[in-house]
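If I may wish for something, please walk me through the protein I am sending here so I can picture the backbone:
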Amino acid sequence: MPIRQQELINNEIYHIVLRGVGDSLIFKDINDYYRGIFSLYEFNNINSVNIGKRRREIQTIKKLSREQAGRSPSSPISVNIPDKRDLLVEIFTFCFMPNHIHLLIKQTKDEGITKFMRKFGTGYANYFNKKYNRKGYLFQGRFKTIHIKTDRQLKIVFVYIHTNPISLIEPKWKEIGIKNMEKVIEFLKNYKWSSYSDYLGKKNFPSVTERNSMLKAMGGEQGCKDFIENWVKYKGEIKKFSNFVLE
Protein backbone atom coordinates (compact mmCIF):
# COMPACT_ATOMS: atom_id res chain seq x y z
CA MET A 1 0.00 0.00 0.00
CA PRO A 2 1.75 3.21 -1.14
CA ILE A 3 2.55 5.98 1.33
CA ARG A 4 0.02 8.79 1.19
CA GLN A 5 1.14 12.30 0.26
CA GLN A 6 -1.55 14.09 2.27
CA GLU A 7 -0.47 15.08 5.75
CA LEU A 8 -2.75 13.65 8.41
CA ILE A 9 -2.82 15.60 11.66
CA ASN A 10 -2.58 14.22 15.18
CA ASN A 11 -5.78 14.42 17.25
CA GLU A 12 -7.84 15.14 14.13
CA ILE A 13 -10.65 12.86 12.89
CA TYR A 14 -10.90 11.33 9.42
CA HIS A 15 -13.37 9.28 7.42
CA ILE A 16 -11.43 6.47 5.74
CA VAL A 17 -12.54 4.24 2.87
CA LEU A 18 -10.54 1.21 1.75
CA ARG A 19 -11.78 -0.67 -1.32
CA GLY A 20 -10.95 -3.96 -2.94
CA VAL A 21 -9.00 -3.57 -6.18
CA GLY A 22 -11.51 -3.20 -8.99
CA ASP A 23 -14.24 -3.35 -6.32
CA SER A 24 -13.55 -7.07 -5.91
CA LEU A 25 -14.74 -8.92 -2.81
CA ILE A 26 -12.52 -8.62 0.25
CA PHE A 27 -14.81 -10.67 2.50
CA LYS A 28 -16.11 -13.95 1.09
CA ASP A 29 -17.30 -15.78 4.20
CA ILE A 30 -17.93 -15.28 7.90
CA ASN A 31 -14.37 -16.19 8.84
CA ASP A 32 -13.03 -13.41 6.62
CA TYR A 33 -15.18 -10.89 8.45
CA TYR A 34 -14.01 -12.18 11.82
CA ARG A 35 -10.41 -12.01 10.65
CA GLY A 36 -10.99 -8.41 9.55
CA ILE A 37 -12.39 -7.47 12.96
CA PHE A 38 -9.50 -9.20 14.71
CA SER A 39 -7.08 -7.33 12.44
CA LEU A 40 -8.69 -3.96 13.20
CA TYR A 41 -8.01 -4.60 16.87
CA GLU A 42 -4.57 -6.19 16.75
CA PHE A 43 -2.94 -4.01 14.06
CA ASN A 44 -3.92 -0.86 15.94
CA ASN A 45 -0.58 -1.05 17.71
CA ILE A 46 2.64 0.88 17.22
CA ASN A 47 4.55 -2.32 18.08
CA SER A 48 5.03 -5.21 15.67
CA VAL A 49 2.21 -7.74 15.55
CA ASN A 50 2.18 -11.44 14.68
CA ILE A 51 -1.48 -12.30 14.16
CA GLY A 52 -0.94 -16.07 14.11
CA LYS A 53 1.04 -15.99 17.34
CA ARG A 54 -1.46 -13.66 18.96
CA ARG A 55 -4.41 -15.89 18.07
CA ARG A 56 -2.60 -18.92 19.52
CA GLU A 57 -1.97 -17.00 22.74
CA ILE A 58 -5.66 -16.11 23.02
CA GLN A 59 -6.74 -19.71 22.37
CA THR A 60 -4.33 -20.91 25.08
CA ILE A 61 -5.77 -18.41 27.57
CA LYS A 62 -9.32 -19.53 26.73
CA LYS A 63 -8.37 -23.19 27.02
CA LEU A 64 -6.89 -22.67 30.47
CA SER A 65 -9.95 -20.67 31.53
CA ARG A 66 -12.27 -23.49 30.41
CA GLU A 67 -10.22 -26.05 32.31
CA GLN A 68 -10.25 -23.93 35.47
CA ALA A 69 -14.01 -23.46 35.14
CA GLY A 70 -14.64 -27.14 34.43
CA ARG A 71 -16.12 -26.36 31.01
CA SER A 72 -15.97 -28.60 27.94
CA PRO A 73 -13.31 -27.77 25.27
CA SER A 74 -16.00 -26.71 22.77
CA SER A 75 -18.05 -24.50 25.08
CA PRO A 76 -17.95 -20.74 24.47
CA ILE A 77 -16.26 -18.69 27.15
CA SER A 78 -15.63 -15.02 27.76
CA VAL A 79 -12.29 -14.06 29.29
CA ASN A 80 -10.58 -10.78 30.08
CA ILE A 81 -7.41 -10.57 27.98
CA PRO A 82 -5.01 -7.77 28.95
CA ASP A 83 -4.82 -4.99 26.37
CA LYS A 84 -1.12 -4.20 25.97
CA ARG A 85 -1.42 -2.26 22.71
CA ASP A 86 0.15 1.15 22.13
CA LEU A 87 -2.56 2.60 19.89
CA LEU A 88 -1.81 4.27 16.58
CA VAL A 89 -5.38 5.57 16.23
CA GLU A 90 -8.69 5.70 18.02
CA ILE A 91 -11.37 3.89 16.03
CA PHE A 92 -14.75 5.54 16.57
CA THR A 93 -16.84 3.65 14.03
CA PHE A 94 -16.39 0.96 11.39
CA CYS A 95 -18.43 -0.85 8.78
CA PHE A 96 -17.34 -3.83 6.70
CA MET A 97 -19.04 -4.26 3.35
CA PRO A 98 -18.32 -7.17 0.97
CA ASN A 99 -15.96 -5.08 -1.20
CA HIS A 100 -14.96 -2.12 0.99
CA ILE A 101 -14.44 -0.80 4.51
CA HIS A 102 -15.49 2.46 6.19
CA LEU A 103 -13.70 3.80 9.27
CA LEU A 104 -14.06 6.93 11.37
CA ILE A 105 -10.80 7.35 13.25
CA LYS A 106 -8.64 9.84 15.11
CA GLN A 107 -4.87 9.87 14.67
CA THR A 108 -3.08 9.62 18.03
CA LYS A 109 0.53 9.07 16.89
CA ASP A 110 2.66 10.70 14.20
CA GLU A 111 1.69 9.06 10.89
CA GLY A 112 -0.60 6.81 12.93
CA ILE A 113 -3.32 6.45 10.31
CA THR A 114 -0.88 5.66 7.51
CA LYS A 115 0.97 3.11 9.66
CA PHE A 116 -2.25 1.52 10.86
CA MET A 117 -3.75 1.27 7.39
CA ARG A 118 -0.52 -0.15 5.99
CA LYS A 119 -0.36 -2.79 8.73
CA PHE A 120 -4.02 -3.67 8.39
CA GLY A 121 -3.96 -3.73 4.59
CA THR A 122 -0.81 -5.83 4.33
CA GLY A 123 -1.74 -8.21 7.14
CA TYR A 124 -5.28 -8.88 5.95
CA ALA A 125 -4.21 -9.17 2.31
CA ASN A 126 -1.60 -11.80 3.24
CA TYR A 127 -4.28 -13.80 5.04
CA PHE A 128 -6.76 -13.46 2.16
CA ASN A 129 -4.26 -14.32 -0.59
CA LYS A 130 -3.03 -17.39 1.25
CA LYS A 131 -6.55 -18.62 2.00
CA TYR A 132 -7.81 -18.19 -1.56
CA ASN A 133 -4.56 -19.08 -3.32
CA ARG A 134 -4.34 -15.73 -5.08
CA LYS A 135 -1.54 -13.26 -5.78
CA GLY A 136 -1.29 -9.53 -6.18
CA TYR A 137 -2.89 -6.53 -4.53
CA LEU A 138 -6.14 -7.01 -2.64
CA PHE A 139 -6.86 -3.32 -2.04
CA GLN A 140 -6.82 -0.30 -4.31
CA GLY A 141 -3.53 1.58 -4.11
CA ARG A 142 -4.51 4.29 -1.65
CA PHE A 143 -7.14 4.51 1.02
CA LYS A 144 -9.31 7.60 0.70
CA THR A 145 -9.68 10.16 3.46
CA ILE A 146 -11.77 13.18 4.30
CA HIS A 147 -10.99 15.45 7.21
CA ILE A 148 -13.87 15.84 9.70
CA LYS A 149 -13.80 19.44 10.91
CA THR A 150 -17.13 20.08 12.65
CA ASP A 151 -19.55 18.33 15.00
CA ARG A 152 -22.16 18.39 12.24
CA GLN A 153 -19.83 16.54 9.88
CA LEU A 154 -19.04 14.05 12.64
CA LYS A 155 -22.71 13.22 13.15
CA ILE A 156 -23.40 13.00 9.43
CA VAL A 157 -20.53 10.58 8.83
CA PHE A 158 -21.54 8.51 11.86
CA VAL A 159 -24.95 8.04 10.25
CA TYR A 160 -23.55 7.52 6.76
CA ILE A 161 -21.12 4.79 7.81
CA HIS A 162 -23.71 2.88 9.83
CA THR A 163 -26.37 3.07 7.12
CA ASN A 164 -24.03 1.82 4.38
CA PRO A 165 -25.32 -1.80 4.69
CA ILE A 166 -28.78 -0.73 3.47
CA SER A 167 -27.54 -1.42 -0.06
CA LEU A 168 -27.26 -5.12 0.82
CA ILE A 169 -31.03 -5.47 1.14
CA GLU A 170 -32.22 -2.53 -1.01
CA PRO A 171 -29.58 -2.19 -3.75
CA LYS A 172 -31.11 0.85 -5.48
CA TRP A 173 -32.18 2.80 -2.41
CA LYS A 174 -29.95 5.76 -3.29
CA GLU A 175 -31.81 6.22 -6.57
CA ILE A 176 -35.37 5.36 -5.59
CA GLY A 177 -35.42 5.73 -1.80
CA ILE A 178 -36.06 3.22 0.96
CA LYS A 179 -39.07 0.96 0.36
CA ASN A 180 -39.38 -0.84 3.69
CA MET A 181 -38.16 1.41 6.49
CA GLU A 182 -39.01 -0.98 9.34
CA LYS A 183 -37.11 -3.81 7.68
CA VAL A 184 -34.10 -1.56 7.10
CA ILE A 185 -34.04 -0.32 10.70
CA GLU A 186 -34.15 -3.87 12.02
CA PHE A 187 -31.47 -4.99 9.57
CA LEU A 188 -29.10 -2.22 10.65
CA LYS A 189 -29.61 -3.06 14.33
CA ASN A 190 -28.55 -6.63 13.69
CA TYR A 191 -25.84 -6.09 11.08
CA LYS A 192 -22.89 -7.77 12.77
CA TRP A 193 -20.04 -6.24 10.79
CA SER A 194 -20.33 -2.65 11.95
CA SER A 195 -20.00 -0.76 15.23
CA TYR A 196 -23.67 0.30 15.27
CA SER A 197 -24.92 -2.44 17.58
CA ASP A 198 -22.16 -1.57 20.05
CA TYR A 199 -23.49 2.00 20.10
CA LEU A 200 -26.87 0.52 21.00
CA GLY A 201 -25.27 -1.25 23.97
CA LYS A 202 -25.28 -4.78 22.53
CA LYS A 203 -21.53 -5.46 23.00
CA ASN A 204 -20.87 -6.86 19.54
CA PHE A 205 -17.17 -5.97 19.22
CA PRO A 206 -16.76 -3.47 22.09
CA SER A 207 -12.97 -3.79 22.34
CA VAL A 208 -12.44 -2.48 18.78
CA THR A 209 -13.95 0.97 19.15
CA GLU A 210 -13.52 3.95 21.47
CA ARG A 211 -17.15 5.03 21.89
CA ASN A 212 -17.12 7.61 24.68
CA SER A 213 -16.47 10.62 22.45
CA MET A 214 -19.10 9.63 19.90
CA LEU A 215 -21.69 8.77 22.53
CA LYS A 216 -21.21 12.23 24.00
CA ALA A 217 -21.50 13.87 20.57
CA MET A 218 -24.57 11.86 19.58
CA GLY A 219 -26.46 12.16 22.89
CA GLY A 220 -25.84 8.66 24.24
CA GLU A 221 -27.16 5.32 23.04
CA GLN A 222 -30.67 6.68 22.53
CA GLY A 223 -29.29 9.60 20.54
CA CYS A 224 -27.39 7.21 18.24
CA LYS A 225 -30.54 5.16 17.70
CA ASP A 226 -32.65 8.26 17.04
CA PHE A 227 -30.18 9.73 14.53
CA ILE A 228 -30.06 6.51 12.50
CA GLU A 229 -33.78 5.74 12.62
CA ASN A 230 -34.89 9.29 11.91
CA TRP A 231 -32.59 9.43 8.93
CA VAL A 232 -34.04 6.17 7.58
CA LYS A 233 -37.61 7.27 8.23
CA TYR A 234 -37.10 10.54 6.42
CA LYS A 235 -35.77 8.67 3.40
CA GLY A 236 -32.10 9.53 3.89
CA GLU A 237 -31.54 12.20 1.30
CA ILE A 238 -28.09 11.05 0.21
CA LYS A 239 -27.30 14.33 -1.57
CA LYS A 240 -26.93 16.02 1.81
CA PHE A 241 -23.91 13.84 2.50
CA SER A 242 -21.98 14.70 -0.65
CA ASN A 243 -19.51 17.08 0.99
CA PHE A 244 -18.65 14.85 3.91
CA VAL A 245 -18.47 11.26 2.74
CA LEU A 246 -16.68 9.06 0.28
CA GLU A 247 -18.64 6.71 -1.93
Notes: The longest strand covers residues 89-97. The chain has a mean pLDDT of 86. The domain at 13-47+85-240 is CATH 3.30.70.1290 (Alpha-Beta Plaits).
